[in-house]
Amino acid sequence: MAPASVYCDGLDLVIVLMNIGEVADVIVEPRFAYGLSGTKDIPAGTPLVYTVELLTARSFDITQFNYSQRKELAQKKRLRGNWWYDRKELYAALECYKRVLVLTSMEELLDAEVTQNNKEEMLKLSLVVRNNMAMTQIRLGLIDAALENLNCVLHHEPNNVKALHRKAKLLADKGECKEAHNILLELQNLVPHMKILQVEISALADTIVANAKKEKSLYRRMLGISGNANSNSVLSKKKEDKNGINKKMLWSVVGGASAVIFSIIVHKFVL
């Protein structure tokens, strides 16, 4: 990975291929420069031409960087990612955010003087970037990847408002409305002043009710039962039950009379 570029990312790709003392004419296509948005001084979709001379080089092994160096570079890449995101260059933004996560990983940090506070600062920076990554992935349609990042944020910060709100929207879009509704209710307790939540909660509640009716209707069709048929079957069942009760009563009366007659005959016979 080349150092964070403050000019255009295309140069990062070229410089790592050059030898010390080499001079190269470099043409950078808009995709690796300023994209379709351009800048104040560079028109949209403009390729850039550079003459680059590599005077010196040094190793860029991030495992050899101390805490301060990694944090500084991570911040630059985060800001660069935000810059690409604002320009709607989403894939370029995503690549910058991925580099931040590599830089903020504390597993390979060799600085013996890193404190717990330093680790917490790095974690906080990585969570901010994961939230940004999730939003970028949502816009790119990478839903599962976005959910993975949001779940990571919420694992460390269960009350992160942005992550909760984005996760609820994603779940609602996936049709998991009940879980999305529960998340919004939880979020409403955290930020009761957030007016948009009530609208979203109400809309999801209506969707849940509508979905329940559709499911019920689907089950009826699967069983070949219409609404009227169901009502008729209930009435028919009641009639059957009533007739059954009457028949039981009749047989009880007949059975009782027969028992009385039989006992009289037996009694007379014995006498």
Please state the average pLDDT score: 79
Continuous helix count:
9
Tally of discrete structural domains: 3
Radius of gyration: 37 Å
CATH homologous superfamily of the largest domain - what is it? Tetratricopeptide repeat domain
Large-scale geometry: elongated
Helix content: 55-70%
Q: Which residues sit in consecutive blocks of at least 5 with pLDDT less than 50? A: 1-6, 259-271
Summing up helix and strand content along with how strands pair, one would put the structural category as mainly alpha
The CATH topology of the largest domain turns out to be: Serine Threonine Protein Phosphatase 5, Tetratricopeptide repeat
* First and last CA, distance: 119 Å
**What is the level 1 CATH name of the largest domain?**
Mainly Alpha
| Largest sheet geometry | 2 strands, antiparallel
Sheet-strand content, in percent, reads under 5%
Protein name: peptidylprolyl isomerase
Transmembrane segments: 249-270
EC number: 5.2.1.8
Keywords: Isomerase, Membrane, Repeat, Rotamase, TPR repeat, Transmembrane, Transmembrane helix
State the gist of this model.
By secondary structure, the protein is mostly helical.
What topology emerges from the helices and strands here?
Blueprint (H helix, E strand, L loop, with lengths): L8 H7 L7 E6 L19 E6 L13 H20 L3 H15 L11 H25 L2 H14 L4 H13 L3 H14 L5 H27 L4 H44 L1
Antiparallel strand pairs: 1-2
Helix pairs in contact: 2-3, 2-4, 3-4, 4-5, 4-6, 5-6, 6-7, 7-8
